[in-house]
Design goal:
Elements (H helix, E strand, L loop, with lengths): L34 H12 L7 H11 L4 H12 L2 H7 L5 H19 L3 H14 L14 H9 L3 H13 L3 H12 L4 H13 L7 H13 L3 H13 L7 H13 L3 H13 L7 H10 L34 H14 L3 H13 L3 H13 L7 H12 L4 H13 L7 H13 L3 H10 L1
């Protein structure tokens, strides 16, 4: 074979590099000199997982491609910034998800490392190809002209964040994530917090704890107290980082001083139980009473140790949709369910139900009815269903109808079942309406 660099002949069947200029050639006989070719060569020869170890990859490039210094430096920077790890994690995901992750890698290389956009894109595309994650920075589907124009016109971060909140409220999570990310990339703190939450939950795209923590850290650096509270939990639980109790408590305390009620309660709990810090009932009492608004340096001398320590909230708790404590607990229960923690969910549902949260009352009733996360207790389930049903919650009304129809805890009573099914159907429960038709 003729070398594509120096033009001399070498035996490709014995070695894939020129013996004179040491230029490596691929299976097509072309010299490998650019970053894409180099990374793909290493991936094919040593395995794609090799690229996850940037030091080993750098050593291989230095050994196999000694004259390609520019490509070597670009590859090292891209791998150092985590492009291989991020793209490898989504190679089996939908095309749109892969492109979104790739775009974030490009931005990181541009903003954090200082590469030019075109160079950063070239590096990320090369890494993606080498780890088996084919990407493109062009959309797979053509966006309607009206939508394109609309997105083009909304460039203000505050407006983008507002749109994200709107779509989040109506549960159109993909659109919400688009606007949150648009604002977050403009360094909007609250939007960065929401992107962190979405990444933690997997809403609107990929679920990635590493990315979630990165966004929470960015939001924390922009002064978002709730984000700092979440970073504390990541340190406390060792999620996407090493366990560090000192840093965890430092984050909790700092967020509490900024007015984060969740963090204030956590600080109180830490002092009460000696978790992440030394036990101090006086400070615990003060933080519990002050709600995180006072400095801890002047403890009250009359503080008492609570008889029972509060339950630790779930570290993956979503942002509160209202200031109501019941809603906060209800959202914590949902996060527990997402993490397959049925017992934790039942506990949070119960606490929210006792505070009068209607949907939590119904959800806790379901836990008791099925025995999922709590002891099976049809009588108690009936009580909670009825509480929620009397507040016009259609799901609870439907559940009561089922219990009367099947005779669970209560005697079978078709008339009473019809009554509750009708109320549920009138309130928009489709299944209740279908059952009513069959009972007539």
């Amino acid at each position: 074979m003729k070398c594509g660099r120096c033009g001399r002949e070498f035996d490709f069947s014995k070695q894939d590099f020129c013996g004179f200029c040491k230029t490596v050639h691929n299976k097509s006989g072309e010299p490998v000199r650019d970053i894409k070719g180099i990374l793909c060569y290493i991936s094919e020869r040593f395995g794609a997982d090799t690229l996850l170890d940037r030091r080993r990859t750098d050593a291989l490039i230095a050994d196999l491609f000694p004259k390609e210094d520019t490509a070597r430096r670009l590859a090292y920077v891209a791998l150092y910034d985590g492009a291989a790890k991020n793209l490898s994690a989504v190679r089996e995901k939908p095309f749109e998800v892969k492109c979104a992750v790739a775009a974030r890698c490009v931005k990181s290389l541009r903003d954090e490392i200082g590469l030019k956009g075109k160079v950063a894109a070239e590096a990320v595309e090369a890494v993606g190809c080498a780890v088996g994650c084919e990407i493109s920075f062009k959309k797979s589907e053509k966006t309607p002209a009206s939508e394109t124009e609309s997105r083009k016109n909304v460039t203000d971060a505050a407006e983008q964040y507002s749109l994200g909140r709107h779509f989040d409220r109506i549960r159109e999570y993909e659109k919400a994530l688009y606007w949150f990310e648009s604002a977050a990339l403009q360094d909007h703190g609250e939007a960065q917090y929401y992107v962190g939450v979405y990444r933690l939950e997997g809403r609107g795209g990929i679920q990635d704890a590493d990315q979630s923590r990165e966004w929470f850290v960015r939001a924390m650096e922009n002064g978002v107290a709730q984000a700092e509270y979440m970073v504390g939990y990541f340190y406390a639980e060792g999620t996407a980082c090493e366990v560090d109790e000192d840093k965890a408590f430092e984050c909790f305390l700092s967020a509490a001083k900024k007015g984060c009620a969740d963090a204030a309660n956590m600080v109180a709990m830490c002092y009460e139980n000696g978790v992440h810090t030394e036990k101090n009932p006086e400070l615990a009492k003060k933080w519990r009473k002050a709600g995180g608004t006072l400095d801890e340096r002047e403890p009250e001398r009359t503080a008492e140790v609570p008889k029972q320590a509060p339950t630790l909230p779930d570290p993956d708790e979503t942002p509160k949709s209202t200031a109501d404590e019941g809603e906060e607990l209800y959202q914590s229960a949902r996060r527990c369910l997402a993490e397959k923690d049925a017992e934790g969910a039942a506990l949070f549902y119960k606490r929210a139900a006792e505070l009068g949260h209607v949907r939590a009352q119904c959800s806790y009733g379901k836990c008791l009815y099925t025995g999922h996360g709590a002891g099976k207790d049809p009588a108690e389930a009936f009580r909670w269903f009825k509480k929620a049903a009397e507040q016009n919650l259609n799901i609870a009304q439907y559940n009561l109808g089922v219990m009367y129809l099947k005779g669970v805890y209560v005697p079978k009573d078709t008339a009473e079942a019809k009554k509750w099914f009708k109320l549920a159907a009138d309130n928009g429960h489709e299944d209740a309406g279908k059952i009513l038709k069959k009972l007539k």
